[in-house]
Amino acid sequence: MIKKVGILANGGDVSGFNAVIRAIVKTAENHNVECYGIIDGYNGLLKKDFERLSTAADGNAIGILPQGGSIIGSSTNANLFNYKVVNEDGSVEFKDVSDQAIANIKEFGFDCIFTLGGDGTQKSARDFSTKGVNVIGVPKTIDNDVACTEITFGYNTAVSVAMEALDRLHTTGATHHRIMVLEVMGRYAGWIALEAAIAGGADVALIPEIPYDINRVATKIENRRKRGKSFSVVVVAEGATPIGGELTIMNTRDNGAGVDNTKLGGIGEVVAKQLQELTGLEARNTTLGYMQRGGTPTAFDRVLSTKYGTKAMELALEEKFGRLVVIKNGKLDSATLDDVVGNNTKIGAASGNTAESNLRKIEMDDDLIKTARNIGINLGD
Predict the structure, then answer these.
(1) What is the CA radius of gyration of the chain?
(2) Is position 143 annotated as part of the catalytic site?
(3) In a domain, 225, yes or no
(4) Torsional sign, CA 122, 120, 345, 91
(5) Scanning 120, 270, 332, 345, which has its CA 20 to 30 A from the CA of 225?
(6) Tens of each residue's pLDDT in the chain, 381 residues
(7) What is the domain extent for residue 238?
(8) Pair 224, 368 in one domain
(9) Is residue 359 in some structural domain?
């Protein structure tokens, strides 16, 4: 019988974290199950930093449905199978500290751990599951690239923020006859860029799945000018690359082989500069950055997050562990964590931009691609 569960939020923050936490707690309380927040992601498992969660009148999990961020924190660099440790002499090494985390789970009496996060979080969840921990994942990421599910929580809010930015950039572009470039998040998948471009009436969308030719983009803008349209709006995913080119990297951190150490950024400025040179029109870039992650979730994300949280607790009560809650064919379902990580089966291995990674990217026969092309959005090819 499930009596005590832990919830951890891991990876970059998104709108909807708290809605999932609230749904798990409320469902658990209806079945007399104690809930604890694991503070600051997987770090909390290692440090035994647990906090009781409650929706009682004086509880800490009330009023959080519309709240952005995570009341239990999160971490973007805590792979416990390849963990950065600073020794007393100042030297740094990377260790597998997962056994200590497992010992902490057993000592505290957790019957199940809920992992709210993206592909990296669920890779670690799968690895813990392989070592005997009862784990249930909930798919989070604004990039919408977690395998086996049709949508992740946090994504809809990010698209909505990007759409509003495009609406505002349209007016500036039209007033000053400029090319307005908007750089959005999307490391290896272009869901935000493409859907925001459609919703926001952009003329160009450059995504990681389609290497672009800047000359084709310039031709699109020139053709608009010939038809009397003196401005253009371009959306660029941070992971977009030119044909034969590479990712635009802002900097690289040193947190070991178990996490993605590249910080992308800057492609918007590159594209704006090139288009200005090729067309003679002034071009300006806006990098939306963390605006996409923060703030209150949309109604869609509040509902989706609540559905995911309640389904996760249902799976725990049914003792169906080692699974990820998903949306499949428009309905709540679950998939095995083994299916989620695909061929990326090595314990402690990084997820993301590796040959073994099982990221959900946009296929060329996706309805979004077809829709964009049909309404004249240039995809750089």
Answers:
(1) 22
(2) yes
(3) yes
(4) negative
(5) 270
(6) 899 999 999 999 999 999 999 999 999 999 999 999 999 999 999 999 999 999 999 999 999 999 999 999 999 888 999 998 989 898 989 999 999 999 999 999 999 999 999 999 999 999 999 999 999 999 999 999 999 999 999 999 999 999 999 999 999 999 999 999 999 999 999 999 999 999 999 999 999 999 999 999 999 999 999 999 999 999 999 999 999 999 888 877 666 656 666 778 899 999 999 999 999 999 999 999 999 999 999 999 999 999 999 999 999 999 999 999 999 999 999 999 999 999 998 998 877 767 788 999 999 999 999 999 999 999 999
(7) 157-294+364-374
(8) yes
(9) no
- Which one from 40, 143, 145, 203 is the annotated catalytic residue? 143
Tell whether 253 and 139 lie within a shared domain: no
Could you tell me the CATH number of the domain that includes residue 95? 3.40.50.450
- Pairing state of beta strands 249-252 and 112-117? unpaired
The CATH number for 210's domain is 3.40.50.460
Measured CA to CA, the distance from residue 27 to residue 205 in angstroms comes to 41
* Same-domain check for residues 118 and 259: no
Give the closest residue to 186 by CA, choosing from 206, 167, 169, 201. Answer: 206
51 class by beta-carbon count within 10 Å (0-12 exposed, 13-18 middle, 19+ buried): middle
